[in-house]
Amino acid sequence: MIKSKSLFAFLFLFCFVSGVIGGIAGISIVASSPTLQKSVGISTDGGTLQSIGQNNISNITVKEDSAVISSVKKIMPSVVSVIYTKDVEVIDPFGFGYPFGSGGSTQQQQGGGTGFIITADGLVATNKHVIDVEGAKYTVITQDGKKYDAQVMAKDTANDFAILKIEAKNLPVVEFGDSDELEIGQRVIAIGNALGEFQNSVTVGVLSGTERSLVASDAYGRNVETLEGLLQTDAAINEGNSGGPLLNIKGQVVGINTATAAKGQSEGIGFAIPITTLKSAIDSIKKTGKIIRPYIGIRYVAVDQKIAAIKGIDTTKGVIVMGDDSSGLPAVVPGSPAEKAGIKQGDVILKINNDELGEGKSLSRFLNQYSPGNEVTLTIIRDSKEISVKVTLGEFSS
């Protein structure tokens, strides 16, 4: 009786183990054979595995952010590194020259940033501060490792923007999006030569804000300039990313990475120039080889509570036409469209056509929507009265 029970237990264990092994082997065979999968009611379609029964269907889906990957693959061939080299003289700290008696020595200084190709025949967009090094030579390195000597074609004095030219043909070009259609919280992608060392680094974040204003400078506090209408993002923008593209999820360029908040003060705050702000400059370069901007010919400051109190103005909006007393520069440039239209020092400009000036909505930004020769109407407060003045815009090129 005992032997019979032992035999029964052995047979039960043997059958159980055999069943498990057979089941695993069967699953492996079915998983490797699409034909068998269909015959037993299992189908794979587009990365989704479906187990089909009479009463229910369960889906097991592996999700991947393929849109980001596709966007990066689309634009990566058009992103370039921009390198500058400059010979600088090395002076002995004691003032004798180095080496002694030789009158001095030189060493090569290097730096750079990022850019992207906007025409197949070699126009490259980047930041002005990337190529604003006096006496430097510039080199563009494409995604495939080719190096090209680059010439500076134009610098946009109204924005931190510049165009380089390399001698090449059939280059892959970027596609532009519409930065005016961006919404806060929308995913964006930054690509750049991070820290000047890691070529075409990709960071992903969201659009944190629009219409930001920023006083920017280099690492030494020099070359200070005010930038307006910027896009803010939490996608990491590091040194060397300057001039690289900011993309939407379609792989279209919606901005140019230009600055980041000072290290130690905050994290996750980067800024980009909206591409719509620069489209007129890009179109001008393509047509004429230079950047042509509309021109009024006034000097002004934004009206705030302090300015309003000092000048006795009843508004805190718009800009007041005023010169620079320290340098003797006049408020209205002689012979300019402003002088011809009768604009005077002390005038407060509230609107250009129907666009009201205010925070993040500067006069220069609205002007960039027009072309030289266009007539615009300025709404002005003069002697506590609101008047309208028509101005025919002049031409300024760089």
From TrEMBL:
Keywords: Hydrolase, Protease. Residues 306-384 form the PDZ domain. InterPro entries: Chloro_Bact_Ser_Proteases, PDZ, PDZ_sf, Peptidase_S1_PA, Peptidase_S1C. GO terms for biological process: proteolysis. SUPFAM superfamilies: PDZ domain-like, Trypsin-like serine proteases. One of its GO terms (molecular function) is serine-type endopeptidase activity. The keyword Isomerase does not apply. Pfam families: PDZ_2, Trypsin_2. This is Putative serine protease HtrA.
